[in-house]
Design brief:
With about 325 residues, the protein is α/β, with parallel strands linked by helices. The chain folds into two domains: about 120 residues, 3-Layer(aba) Sandwich (Rossmann fold); about 190 residues, 3-Layer(aba) Sandwich (Rossmann fold), CATH 3.40.50.2000. The chain is built from 13 helices and eleven strands. The protein has a six-stranded parallel sheet with strand order 8-7-6-9-10-11, sandwiched between helices. A five-stranded parallel sheet has the order 3-2-1-4-5, with no helix packed on it. α5 packs across α8 and α6 crosses α12. The longest helix is centred in the middle third of the chain and has 12 residues.
């Protein structure tokens, strides 16, 4: 795809954390196939940390939304002076069409109903689509080593989401953690890693109150690459349809995503080490419950039972651990 040595590539990806993570498979493909290429990455501020360890990263441009789409004008100004060997624009923006480039690739202009990983791969006609991939740096690894106990089994929970309607009740996360980590649980004796954004701490108070303080590993407010390094050390991640779910999946941790009003066929965690459980109702049925305007939106995840989530967890655990758990239950 790239003919020149030391080719310069511009990679434009999402503002949202989850969408940005789901685009990293394309970036990893380019980094592997073109070892002499350098990369300039443009993304939103929330996702920026996830790209800081990208191989041969020349520049990270943070797109902070401005009035009248001024952030796109800023990107054009930052990039107009470079002769790009390749521009991959997964935002399908006008800006990338106004830059000099030998080759260009674009994400779909409209919703396709396919998984986002497949949509992103279609920009370069990659089949099979490359899986999302995150690179860690020493700073993230060192901080994770300080936070995570050595040789401990750790259950990671992602109990927050960017929309309250798709957050499984925090009390159910607490019940799940107790069921999995008690003396008869599938992850008996495990520590519990809790991670979320700083502003989400207050809403997670029932989870902190339900678990012994010595069992909790508090990673709230850590930068996302440190969170990824922590998740890499976990036995299992269980969380809402969120960016954290995609980080766990991309770093290789067995991941169970909890879905209700979200669409797992488009945004489910990617990979054979991942699974989803959803509410008994379809996404369409749940969306129909939302008021047209005015009234507070209801929680749409309450019908998902703890028992259903436990059942979803078991296939993601090592076969030996599953066999031991079955033997204990029979005995």
């Amino acid at each position: 795809m790239l003919n020149a040595s030391s080719a310069k590539c511009l990679f434009i990806t999402s503002n949202r954390i989850g969408d940005a993570v789901l685009s990293t498979g394309v970036l990893a493909h380019l980094a592997e196939k073109h070892p002499d290429a350098t990369f300039t990455i443009a993304c939103g501020p929330l996702a920026a940390d996830l790209f800081r360890a990208t191989p041969r990263l020349e520049r990270l441009i943070i797109l902070r939304k401005q009035a009248w789409n001024g952030h796109w004008l800023g990107l054009w100004r930052d990039c107009i002076g470079t002769r790009w060997a390749l521009i991959v624009d997964l935002r399908n923006s006008i800006v990338s069409r106004l830059l000099w480039a030998s080759k260009r690739a674009y994400g779909p202009a409209h919703k396709t109903g396919r998984h986002k990983v497949i949509d992103n791969a279609s920009a370069l006609r990659l089949d099979p689509p490359p899986a999302p991939h995150l690179w860690l740096d020493k700073q993230a690894e060192d901080q994770a080593a300080r936070l995570m106990p050595a040789n401990a089994t750790v259950l990671a929970l992602g109990p927050a989401a960017n929309w309250a309607c798709k957050q499984w009740p925090v009390e159910k996360f607490a019940e799940l953690a107790l069921k999995l980590t008690d003396s008869g649980g599938a992850l008996s004796g495990a520590r519990v890693l809790i991670t979320a954004a700083p502003h989400e701490r207050a809403q997670l108070a029932p989870l902190f109150a339900a678990l012994p303080s010595e069992q909790i590993i508090d990673a709230i407010g850590q930068n996302l690459l440190t969170v990824a390094a922590c998740l890499k050390r976990c036995r299992l991640f269980v969380g809402n349809d969120s960016g954290l779910m995609h980080i766990a999946s991309a770093i290789g941790t067995p991941t169970l995503g909890l879905f209700g009003p979200g669409y797992e066929n488009v945004y489910g965690p990617w990979g054979k080490h991942c699974a989803v459980v959803r509410t008994p109702e379809s996404a369409a049925e749940l969306w129909a419950r939302l008021p047209y305007r005015g009234a507070d939106h209801p929680n749409l995840m309450e019908s998902l039972s703890v028992e259903a989530v436990v059942e979803g967890v078991l296939p993601l655990l090592p076969a030996r651990q599953i066999a031991d758990k079955v033997a204990e239950d029979i005995g």
